[in-house]
Amino acid sequence: MRLVGDLRARARIRDAAVGRFAVDGFGATVRAVAADASVSPGLVMHHFGSKAGLRRECDEHVLALIREAKADRIGQVASGASLLETFASVDEFAPLVGYILRSMQEGGAAGREFVEHMVADAQVYTAEAVAAGVARPSQDEAARVRYLVLSSLGALLLSVTLDPPDDPRDLAATVRRFFDESSGPMLELFTDGFLTTDHMLDEYRQPRTT
Amino acid sequence: MRLVGDLRARARIRDAAVGRFAVDGFGATVRAVAADASVSPGLVMHHFGSKAGLRRECDEHVLALIREAKADRIGQVASGASLLETFASVDEFAPLVGYILRSMQEGGAAGREFVEHMVADAQVYTAEAVAAGVARPSQDEAARVRYLVLSSLGALLLSVTLDPPDDPRDLAATVRRFFDESSGPMLELFTDGFLTTDHMLDEYRQPRTT
DNA sequence: GTCTATATAATGATAGAC
DNA sequence: GTCTATCATTATATAGAC
Question: Is B41 near strand D, with its CB below 7 A from some atom of it?
């Protein structure tokens, strides 16, 4: 079957590209991707037109997979970072996590969209948590959620970037280590806070009232 | 004076490189640096041996300047992120902030060292704050400080990376915008916390006691 | 010290055979 | 659809004149 063969080659190249980009970053060469997919560099260009075209399809494919996986576990996910932790430990999804981390690192379209989706999701979960009395209400819900997601994902990204695994295939272990080290402090910070009192906070609450 | 002329050219190239790397990332070419310094590409190689050599000297120079500047304002700095905010608003230091952000983004040696220094500093400040009764004590001071620094710097980095200024010279404005948006949520989170109670936290406090 | 000219290597992309 | 061969560009780095 000619069409099936075609689709399978395309998919193989795309999957190889996702893995390569995850491991080496987006500076990875078309040649390396072709080698991983056991095809010629020319075939990559034939199917995707350009490296940018390949990148675009990888972005879309990864985002689609993540959206799909999120739908399967709706309600179970509280923060973007813990989603990535869960994903990283599933072999099948590990390359996706690497790809998304690279995308956040580089500032690409996929990274931005992923973060924005995470913020949107967290907004819903937080509202539910507040309604359930599990989370405290905030002076500015939108700003709080945004900072929580940005800081959680940013801490993970920075941790992985500054201290990457020797073998990039061990990304899952690195992600897990980060969570082992930070889940304690996070819980403590989120429950007790960090400061005792702060005059600036009073001002934040009652701007120019007193 | 031959020696003075030499040193001035070296310094000019190095400063140009810091600025270029800050704006374009470390993929910036030797040619671009040479053009910014108004010298030939050959002269850059003559002075620094290789692009890697140039990079090394930039790393050392930036770290030295930051160490120096930190010494000048000892005790005034609570977190790494607010240090960068202060720096970014001073025109003279703006390229340094860009350089450090790029270095954290790429995972280079300078980024790692900068973060580690920030963690070490924050450890001292936090201990003082706890002693003064301004900050709550923690179950694991080292882990808490590390997470606070990593999340603050990570949130800033991610924010700047995902939504960079149109003109890279407007980095200061972007950094300031991030702080305007997140200082409120940070203060609230740090003072009140986020969750009401959490069973997992009890376990964290008294592991296998009950 | 500084420049011009060039060597060398790698990359994205194209052309055409099969 | 797939490959081989090649082009054009771009990068670091070198050599040697001034």
Answer: yes
Lowest mean pLDDT among A143-147, A180-184, B14-18, B81-85: B81-85
For residue B89, count other CB atoms closer than 10 A to its CB: 15
- Residue B136 buriedness (CB in 10 A; 0-12 / 13-18 / 19+): middle
- CA dist B149 → B50, B88, B126, B180 (Å): 34, 18, 11, 18
Pair of tokens at residue A136: 């405290």
What per-residue confidence (pLDDT) applies to A117? 96
Q: Which residues of A touch B155 (CB under 8 A)?
A: 147, 150-151, 154-155
The total of other beta-carbon atoms located within 10 Å of residue B187's CB is 20
| Residue where the block lists tokens 């990864």 | A62
Tell me what pLDDT residue A82 has: 80
Q: How confident is the model at residue B74 (pLDDT cuts 50, 70, 90)?
A: low
Which nucleotides of strand D are protein-proximal, with an atom < 7 A from a CB?
1-5, 10-16
Q: Which two tokens stand for residue B130?
A: 């706890």
Say if residues A144 and A53 touch (Cβ distance below 8 Å).
Answer: no
Stated in angstroms, how far is B40 CA from D11 C1'?
15
* Model pLDDT for residues A6-39, shown as the tens digit of each residue: 569 999 999 999 999 999 999 999 999 999 999 9
CATH of domain B64-205: 1.10.357.10
| Contact by Cβ (8 Å): A173, A165 | yes
Instruction: Inform me whether the pLDDT recorded for A129 exceeds 60.
Output: yes
pLDDT given at position A2: 46
Across the interface, do B204 and A187 touch by the CB < 8 Å criterion?
yes
What is the DSSP code (8-state) at residue B135? B
Hey, where are the domains in chain A? Answer: 64-205
Residue type, B160: V
pTM: 0.93
